[in-house]
Write a structure and sequence with these properties.
Blueprint (H helix, E strand, L loop, with lengths): L2 H28 L2 H24 L8 H35 L9 H4 L11 H4 L2
């Protein structure tokens, strides 16, 4: 790929990624689950498109310093947003467990029988009939 074409594709992909990062930041601050989901999906797509553009850049083509700086900033912001999403997910999960406590899943009918429920022998008295 020629140098100027590669540079313009990288800059266009960076523009789109920066836009998606900003939109995801706003959605995270507003806290709307639907908006967060939509913007993070869009951010994922933008990051993937940027990765494809960078993969297509010939190794001999050196990125301009401005593009490299922008790329580092976008990568840092995506990492920060990922951490924020993980923290938010943990808070939501913790809140959900507080509102809807987990039931003891080990309690079943056979556990209620206690010592009368043998291991794999339920119904064995009926087999002899």
């Amino acid at each position: 790929m020629p140098f100027t074409a590669a540079q313009s594709e990288v800059h266009a992909a960076l523009d789109q990624a920066e836009h998606c990062v900003a939109a995801a930041s706003v959605a995270l601050l507003q806290g709307s689950p639907e908006q967060v989901q939509a913007t993070t999906r869009e951010l994922h797509d933008c990051a993937h498109a940027l990765a494809l553009v960078l993969r297509g850049v010939d190794g001999s083509v050196v990125l301009a310093e401005s593009a490299r700086e922008r790329l580092v900033i976008v990568a840092r912001e995506i990492a920060m947003q990922r951490e924020a999403l993980l923290r938010r997910s943990a808070v939501v999960e913790r809140s959900l467990k507080t509102l809807v406590p987990q039931q003891n899943r080990s309690s079943t009918y056979s556990d209620a029988l206690g010592r009368y429920a043998g291991h794999g022998t339920s119904g064995s008295i009926f087999r002899s009939v």
